[in-house]
Amino acid sequence: LLFLSETGGKDRRSGLILTIPLCLEQTSMDELSVTLDYLLSIPSEKCKARGFTVIVDGRKSQWNVVKTVVLMLQNVVPAEVSLVCVVKPDEFWDKKVTHFCFWKEKDRLGFEVILVSANKLTRYIEPCQLTEDFGGTLTYDHMDWLNKRLVFEKFTKESTSLLDELALINNGSDKGTQQERERSIDLNFLPSVDPETVLQTGHELLSELQQRRFNGSDGGVSWSPMDDELLAQPQVMKLLDSLREQYTRYQEVCRQRSKRTQLEEIQQKVMQVVNWLEGPGSEQLRTQWGIGDSIRASQALQQKHEEIESQHSEWFAVYVELNQQIAALLNAGDEEDLVELKALQQQLSDVCYRQASQLEFRQNLLQAALEFHSVAQDLSQQLDGLLGMLCVDVAPADGASIQQTLKLLEEKLKSVDLGLQGLREKGQSLLDQISNQASWAYGKDVTIENKENVDHIQGVMEDMQLRKQRCEDMVDVRRLKMLQMVQLFKCEEDAAQAVEWLSELLDALLKTHIRLGDDAQETKVLLEKHRKFVDVAQSTYDYGRQLLQATVVLCQSLRCTSRSSGDTLPRLNRVWKQFTVTSEERVHRLETAVAFHSTAEKILQECPEQPEAFNEMEQFDEIEAVGKSLLDRLTVPVVYPDGSEQYFGSPSDMASAAEHIREKMKLVSLKKQQLKQPEATTPES
Q1: Which residues form the CRAL-TRIO domain (predicted)?
Q2: In 6-133, where does DSSP find H-type helix?
Q3: What's the DSSP call for residue 279?
């Protein structure tokens, strides 16, 4: 039965030839009937109208089987069969044929039955329409025909089923409401077979059919036009056209569905991002309102904020990806989705930018708080250092160290002023940012939280202001005390300098003020200079006394004991007493010298013609006494109250002054002798 086939050959009436090869094995009539039904369903009605010639090849079968098959044809295809050619063995059926004459049963059977040998079939059918098995030249490969028929049947079955499925899917996509379309597509979205595979199979089948029709078979004999009907080339083309049409619609449905699915996925992801940012993300920011009360607290809040930013970064990355996908869909230019896509993009961008702005605002606020606390801590350390410096008692060695300390104190105070100014600027900037915090509170009342932050900032600034004011007051007191100490050291130094100056005046008086003058006029000039010299010394002494009195007052004000004024006053008094004694001695000597020179000059200037002026010799005696007294003083040292002695000038200086006096005394003595001689000669004459 596997070889039961339509070979493609035709009888002289152009009817199709149906070959039924029988074999020695038992033949199932049911299977034969089904096979015949199938084969007879292949030709078109036009072909069927021309009738069939059936060749029953009984050469390898028994007569009863052949007879059964012929009788079965009466029941299966009586109208389509016009001739049945039973190919008999050469000698085997000769005696049995007489028992049943098919030609007598023609009217009952409905067709003519001919018993014929294989070599005599050509009497009824052209050799070119018979296969080689029956002595013909028709090229026919039953297995090739069977394989192609199986391919065709598979293609027909799959394509028909696929067309139904695609039509159902495509028609479902054309329904009215969006929900109906989506429900229909969801139920029948995936075909049972791959359309591409079915189309490829159909194209390959059609291509092979067309190629064999126009190029001929391998044997060189032209392919029978019957193949177009047997293999249904027009049906393949029609199925392919329908498949292409439905598949094109199906691809559009898939594209729309894919786009809708992508849009729904984007919308779902957008809502996930929006819901998280407006939900947990915003709640995280709502709970983080403090700014900390120290550097460490602000740094801890910054670390917490960085963790929040890290969580937001993951969602912002999703936002970037979604924005790119939306932009790609917008560039595709589907008008029906533009509005929805733009609305999604705008919603996503608004939420993300708002949340990013809130994160940036919070980061800037914490950074400003950290800077504020840093400046506050630095200022606090500066105030502590300044206060520590002020709490230490000042015990400088001299005025220069006091000036250095005072300069350092002023620099520290200036640094504190700059630090407080910087703290106020940072604090005001932080307060301005806090005042804008309500803009991202999402309706939450942050007055209480802001008030705590504002109170803390203002409290820190007020505390620093008070500490700075206290330090300024202490600096004022310390500055006054240090200026008094500077004045004290200055007074002590100036008083010691006055003592030195007075000592230098005393030394100059003893060493350089030794001349007594050569005459009365010069001596008077020396005496006048000496009085001015004494006035200078008196001023120096008075200046030193005033400085020492000021030192006493400053020491009482500073409640301290001067280290130098204790011996400066005795030194000043001692030097002043020595100077006074020396000055008095100098005055006495100059006054004696004036008297001596005046008297001597008067005597020496008297004319000899007036002897009556020298009548009294007492003047000569007086001048001699004055001269001797002056000479004696030149040899006597100045004795100070403490018993110490000091000479004017060097011995040679004193000797020179004494020699000048002696010479003048000699002149006076000579004058006296001259005056005495006239008195002695007058009586004699």
Answers
A1: 1-142
A2: 29-40, 45-49, 63-76, 106-109
A3: I
